[in-house]
């Protein structure tokens, strides 16, 4: 799952070396916290959040196979 998120986000941003993904896991949920440089936030979120919504849709669909829920948070 981590590779999928990184593969989607890195081509979108100007500073791919600053893309950081942290994982927090609870009993029922896996939280992925995506951090990008401030200048790249607009590229990752997109107009009216369309790109972020698309990324989340792909990640949630890929995570549907697992017993745990998957959540993606984009932080600055």
Automatic annotation (TrEMBL):
Q: Which GO terms describe its cellular component?
A: cytoplasm
InterPro entries with a match to the protein in the record: KH_dom-like_a/b (IPR015946), KH_sf_prok-type (IPR009019), KhpA (IPR020627)
The protein's location, in the record's own words, is: Cytoplasm
Alphabetically, the GO molecular function entries are:
RNA binding
What keyword terms does UniProt attach to this protein? Cell shape, Cell wall biogenesis/degradation, Chaperone, Cytoplasm, RNA-binding
Query: Biological process GO terms, please?
Result: cell wall organization; peptidoglycan biosynthetic process; regulation of cell shape
Q: Whom does it interact with, and what assembly results?
A: Forms a complex with KhpB.
Its biological purpose: A probable RNA chaperone. Forms a complex with KhpB which binds to cellular RNA and controls its expression. Plays a role in peptidoglycan (PG) homeostasis and cell length regulation.
Return the similarity comment: Belongs to the KhpA RNA-binding protein family.
Name the chain's protein: RNA-binding protein KhpA
Give the source species.
Listeria fleischmannii 1991
């Amino acid at each position: 799952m981590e590779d999928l998120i990184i593969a989607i986000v890195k081509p979108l941003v100007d500073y791919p070396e600053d893309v950081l993904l942290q994982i927090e896991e609870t009993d029922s949920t896996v939280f992925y916290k995506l951090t990008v440089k401030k200048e790249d936030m607009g590229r990752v979120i997109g107009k009216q959040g369309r790109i972020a919504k698309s990324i989340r849709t792909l990640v949630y669909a890929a995570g549907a196979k697992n017993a745990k829920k998957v959540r993606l948070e984009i932080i600055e």
